[in-house]
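Subgroup meeting minutes
Present: P.N., E.W., G.H.
Scribe: E.W.

1. P.N. recapped why we're keeping a running log of single-chain structure predictions: easier to compare across weeks, and new members can see raw inputs and outputs side by side.
2. G.H. added today's entry (411 aa).
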Amino acid sequence: MRTTEATQDSTFRERIAISDEIGGLRDKGVDEDDARLLTRLDFRKRLDERLAQFELLDRAPTGEVSPDPEVTTTATKLEVDELRRLLDESRLTTDILDARRWYLRGNALLAADRNEDALTAFDRAIASEPDVHQVHNNRGTVLGMLGRFEEGDVAYRRAIELSPESSSPHFNRGVSLGKMGRWKDSLQSYDRAIELQPSDSPAHNNRGAALSALERHDEALAEYDRTIELKPDQAGPHLNRGMALSQLGRHDESLAAFDEAITIDPTNGPAFNGRGDELAELDRAEEALAALDHATELDRDDPRLGRNRAIVLAALGRYRDALAEIEQRLELSPDDEVHLYNRGVALALLKRYAEALASVERAYEIGFDDFELAETHPYLEALRSDPEYGPKLRELIARYRPADEDETAGH
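Output recorded in log:
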């Protein structure tokens, strides 16, 4: 049977914990002060009144008495032009205030998960004032919430163009690029965010996630250590540190990291899941099952948990229970290639070879590509040795293995 590393999705929220959720904002203010803007709006009103007086005078014959005693016939065209310039500036200020109102409305709508309405509000803000980088940054965030990552990337790049020294758009662009699987580009964005803000613990954490996705686990571990140094009381970096250590085969240390995450956050399902994985690696199957059971209680909808629990049940010789667990998870994710492959293994352990081959073939059709596993794993030894079904398994592997892969592996 096979498990995979838990998905390490970054997050737009200004926090460290790794999550599948995209949301939140790293910038929440614009540079202008509302009170000062309101004062300037009052100034605009007075300018309107004053300019009207001058325009009346400009059209009147020389020497005519002005409606306003303060305005005299000595007013020059230069004074009128200056007032008009100031009035234009005040109108621009009105646009800025209107943009800020739409911007704050967009933030509130995003916080309420009204993402389409939030996007409309940010678009209205940009229509009023197109060059405020925070609006483009948060517009990218809501586009990410809607799964429109390419458009979100355009918004982040515009925010960076407007304010290249702001770390938030670089950070959020790194998140979005990671969601698109562009981990090398994501890593570059986190590099820039950290260059601008070296003590930004979420950026270090998510840089580690990008390195993990690139299978650069030693470097990822260093980033998680740096994150913990900056924010030792957050469970997320300890969780990710445990994952990196597991990938490096350092299972005792990995177990300790997951335990630390659980100490910080006793409701952290992925941490219990990781603990169960490492206990299984250390041949402590009963303890592993207890940890995975607790993880499942905390989050029944996490498909990783059922997958790993089934593996431990198989290790305990509870093949029917393992199959039942996998079937339950396939109801939630019917096209999960790892679940389908593991279903085939469980069926093979129950000597239901025809059904096992059908499930393994379905996994290969969807994209499961660890062909060597089927050729070498002890759980499939009986199937490989069966005079009828062993040749069929080899034929199946040969059919789906890419032509440029070593076809002699495992033969």
